[in-house]
Amino acid sequence: MTIITAGFLCLIAFLEVFGREPNVRSQAPPASSFGRTLQVPLDYNNTYLGTAPLYYELGAAFDKAKPVVFIIADGQQFYVTRGSIANLQKTIFGDDFNIVGIVGRGFTPEFTRAALDDAGHPDWLTAWQIFNSGQWIEDIESVRQDLVGKTGKIFLYGASGGGTLVHEYLMRYGSHVARCYTESAAVPDLNRELRIGIDRFWEELGATNSDLQPMLLNSLRQHPAERTSILLALQRQHFFVQAEKLATARSDFIRRLDNGDLSVLEVARKEYQVDAILGLFNSPTGMPISVRELEFIYPTGAFERMRPNRVDPYIESEYTFLKPLVELVNAGKIPIPACEPLAAHQLNTEVFLLAGRWDEAVDYRTSIALAFSYPVHQLFIADDNHLFSKLNASGLRSRIMRTFLKYGLRSSELKAALQAAESYRWKE
Questions:
Q1: Residue 53: which residues within 8 A CB-CB, separation 6 or more?
Q2: Alpha-carbon gap, residue 43 to 31, rounded angstroms
Q3: How many Å apart are CA 401 and CA 407, to the nearest integer?
Q4: Where do the domains of the chain lie?
Q5: Interatomic CA distance for residues 38 and 23, integer angstroms
Q6: Most exposed: 140, 246, 332, 360, by fewest CB within 10 Å?
Q7: What is the pLDDT of residues 245-254, one digit of tens each?
Q8: Which of 384, 397, 380 lies closest to 358, judged by CA?
Q9: CA distances from 269 to 217, 231, 240 (A)
Q10: Which CATH architecture has domain 10-192+338-424?
């Protein structure tokens, strides 16, 4: 039942927290009166590039008596915006914490302009300098020091790509984190080490009906100009079609294409947000997304396994978007991305990880390996998907998160919350 285990969030760019469907973000609200701005380097390692303003926001007036929770959003996530933190605090976290959200450098014009060449096109080498994960990590650290000082500790929350960034921060600055809660956090190095593929579409298609494989290959040959759109539609279909109906939907899509019916693609362009994603990657916002996608995918070795006699919608569409960056890596002009959780063994941070057994984006086995990298951890594998639809509908997802952050791993309160969620736990 695992569906395109493309672990990483490129074309899941519009996934938002707590069960919302993928969607293109509407116009952002205005900045909050609790907003603050820092001048930070465009590149912390090469300050000759200059500085730019980094905006962060609190959900309410700062209260020194309450713990500080940073909501970490990745370069592909759009739910942390100017003016949004008060609502996130109210609807998700409650009043027990100081809630902090950083509007990432990928959504700040000064950063994106600095990554363009004189003709207004992406300068991919500079884009990598400005938007690689190391820069986002240092932004988190800059805000931490600005808010709580050099020795002050914080709590971290992150889901999907944001969860990945949380663990990357822990590898460098974990001593500053008292508690950390993540959901569906991908670590590509673990996919490589465990030999877990990130795109199983071809195998799943063959298992459904082997006739569909040659049909799809033929359709792609017949419509080369639409190849990327077809791949994106197939990659994103599982976010919009119920799991039990996916095989039928795939079959119908491929058979109609094979019969020359391109109207099915036109419908998919809108329903699956294909055109929106193509537009996103061709916009300045596409630069930080592309850099983060490179960091998610390249370490898995997936690009090396591409073959002309098979179709891997996620991998191939990503390669199309990321080709300029991949060429820079292959030429040795930027380092091979890596996020190895080796430093986790030395941390005393309390870490709670929520994973979904049927997660369409992050293989649960990598979550097991990641959890056991930390000496002080709790792992809950829900009988659920990437959005934790069942756990979220029950209200227990939010309860577990808030209870852990407030009381910690060893508390009776967390034990009670997990006991209430026991029927939602995946049992092998």
A1: 37, 38, 39, 40, 108, 110
A2: 25
A3: 10
A4: 10-192+338-424, 200-330
A5: 30
A6: 332
A7: 999 999 999 9
A8: 384
A9: 20, 11, 12
A10: 3-Layer(aba) Sandwich (3.40)
Residue 378's DSSP bridge partners are: 352
Q: Work out the burial of residue 208: count CB atoms within 10 Å of its CB; fewer than 13 is exposed, 13-18 middle, 19 or more buried.
A: middle
Sign (positive or negative) of CA dihedral 154, 78, 294, 240: positive
- Encode 156-182: b = buried (16+ Cβ within 10 Å), e = exposed: bbbbbbbbbbbbbbbbebbebbbbbbb
Which tokens hold the place of 241?
């079609």
Read off the tokens for 157.
């929350």
Residue of 179, 148, 153 lying closest to 166 (CA atoms): 179
- How many Å apart are CA 316 and CA 91, to the nearest integer? 38
**Please, which residues bridge with residue 380 across strands?**
354
Whole-angstrom distance, CA of residue 241 vs CA of residue 247: 9
The number of CA neighbours under 13 Å toward the Cβ of 428 is 3
Helix 227-240 and helix 274-281: axis angle, to 10°? 120
Residue in the structure block whose two tokens are 């990483």: 8
The pLDDT tens digits of the residues spanning 176-208 come to 999 999 999 988 989 988 889 888 899 999 998
What is the DSSP annotation of 190-201? Answer: HHHHHT--S--H
Q: pLDDT by residue (tens digit) across 32-58?
A: 689 999 999 999 999 889 999 999 999
Quote the CA–CA distance of 111 and 42 in Å, as a whole number: 7
Tell me the three state secondary structure of residue 43.
coil
Most distant CA pair in the chain, distance: 66
Which residues, other chains included, contact 17 with Cβ-Cβ below 8 Å and sequence gap of 6+? 79, 92, 159
Task: Please report, rounded to a whole number, the percentage of residues in the chain having pLDDT higher than 70.
Answer: 93
User: What average pLDDT score do residues 368-386 get?
Assistant: 95
* pLDDT value of residue 305: 87
**Beta-sheet strand order (sheet of 98-103):** 35-41, 51-58, 98-103, 68-71, 154-159, 177-183, 350-356, 377-382
Beta-strand relationship, 35-41 and 51-58 = antiparallel
What pLDDT, in 10s, does the model give residues 257-306?
Answer: 999 999 999 999 999 999 998 988 888 889 999 999 999 999 999 998 89
Gap between the Cα atoms of 322 and 349, Å rounded: 35
DSSP state of 362: S
Q: Could you identify the residue written with the tokens 């969607």? A: 23
